[in-house]
Amino acid sequence: LSLNDLSGQVKAMGFNQLNTQVKFEKFSPLTLSKQQLTLNNLGDQFKINDLITFYQVNDINKIPTLTLDNFKVSLLDGQIKLQKASINQEISGSFPIEIHQIDATRLAQLLQQKGLYVKGKLNGKIPLKLIKKQSVIDNGSIISKNGILIYNAPDSMQQTLSQNPLTQIVVDALKNYHYTTLEAKINKKPGEKVKITTALKGINPQLYDGKRPIHMNIQLDVDDSIFIYALKDFTGKETAQTLLHVFYPQLFNQENK
Predict the structure, then answer these.
(1) Does residue 29 have a cis bond before it (omega within 30 degrees)?
(2) Claim: this prediction has a pTM higher than 0.70
(3) Tens of pLDDT along the chain (257 residues)?
(4) What CA–CA distance (Å, rounded) separates 91 from 191?
(5) Neighbours of 139 (CB within 10 A)
(6) In whole angstroms, how far apart are CA 103 and each of 144, 145, 248?
(7) CA 228/CA 112 separation, integer angstroms
(8) Which of 69, 147, 195, 222 is the most buried (most CB within 10 A)?
(9) In this structure, how many other beta carbons lie within 10 angstroms of the beta carbon of residue 170?
(10) Which residues contact 242 (CB under 8 A, 6 or more apart)?
């Protein structure tokens, strides 16, 4: 089966110039021989471009498994790479994600966190695994050099933080923080939230005449469903809800009550 310059739309998500050959070796169990796939672009407001990968489907321990080799895609003015990734019918697999020069400003816009502005380029690795729909990250790391981080916390949060002199310094520093180094360590165990520990080194030009270094360590516990919610502007609301239904059925049910 040959697909040449195929364009179309799946629900709210459009795609253009899909090219590949699908070669069936077996139908039961399903087995597809290794083939190249290219795609010019996918998505609407937040597009991915120039996708290229090699894929195949094999029967591993009687479970059909999709394997991707040398996956590359342009996203948010940077590039995402996976040397080798796999996922099977039980929604288990591994995705050793490599991040290259991702635009932090556009990523912050995608996450839609009010009061947050970031300027810089992100690089790093996120070794993501899925174990029967449960996501796991072991020692992921993202680094950015020489950028700007601004976070204007909601008034209610600022009032709470201002009661402690140490947290007040953090609030004031983040109003215009120019960092030399931003390094985030990312970990997640099955069934738990994503733990992000961020080490920051830099200054705020409006504090201490911009001469005193301000080093901070910030730890966040984030529900990873927030990333699927963020995808609704990329994939469309219907596709995002489908992903929520697969990975977070309890949230999907709450949304539709």
Answers:
(1) yes
(2) yes
(3) 898 999 887 766 678 899 998 888 877 777 888 999 999 987 765 678 899 999 998 887 777 888 999 999 998 899 999 999 888 877 778 889 999 999 999 888 877 778 889 999 999 999 988 887 788 999 999 999 999 999 887 777 777 777 777 778 888 899 999 999 999 999 999 888 899 999 999 999 999 888 899 999 989 888 766 665 555 555 555 555 555 555 555 444 444 44
(4) 15
(5) 10
(6) 10, 12, 28
(7) 12
(8) 147
(9) 18
(10) none
Written as one letter, the residue type at 256 is N
Q: Cα separation of 216 and 196, whole Å? A: 14
How far apart (Å, rounded) are the C-alpha atoms in residues 173 and 203?
8
- Of all helices (H) and strands (E), which one includes residue 23? none
Are 56 and 36 spatial neighbours (Cβ–Cβ below 8 Å)? no
Query: Which residue matches tokens 């290259």?
Result: 100
CA distances from 135 to 90, 129, 132, 219, 244 (A): 13, 6, 8, 19, 13
Helical residues (DSSP H) of the chain, grouped into ranges: 104-111, 155-161, 165-173, 225-230, 232-235, 237-247, 249-255
